[in-house]
Design goal:
6 helices, Four Helix Bundle (Hemerythrin (Met), subunit A), MAPEG-like_dom_sf, transmembrane, single chain, mainly alpha
Amino acid sequence: MLTNQVSIFVPMLVIVALTFAAFLKMGAARGAAVKGGHDPNYYKAHLGTPEPEPTVAAVRHYGNLFELPTLFYAACLTAFVLGVVSTWVLVFAWGYVAARVVQSAVHVTYNNPGHRGGAFVLGVLFMLALWVTLGVAILGKL
């Protein structure tokens, strides 16, 4: 069942907001590291004493938002362009967003790799389901 095609952009906006929040978190973590005594010259070429663990986690978290989420953005745009934003597409998109938000929350708080990994795998499964759904829709349009 098709739905309002523009609604696919709402989960995209959540991931975009999450990315900007991660950017702010990374900046705050780096600022705190320098204020706490980390050599500010490290940031010229990232050479020297490594950043403290919380800063590295914030930097990795921000970087991760430019990996699998790129497939999410592509899927959402594909669904919109083809006019195939259905209830299932939205369920899988929102499922991915929920898993990504949980993964991010774990990453920037207590950073348990098992919990973070579980959320990541769940997100991958939602992404796979989203792309299979889109693949079927694409093949149906041929």
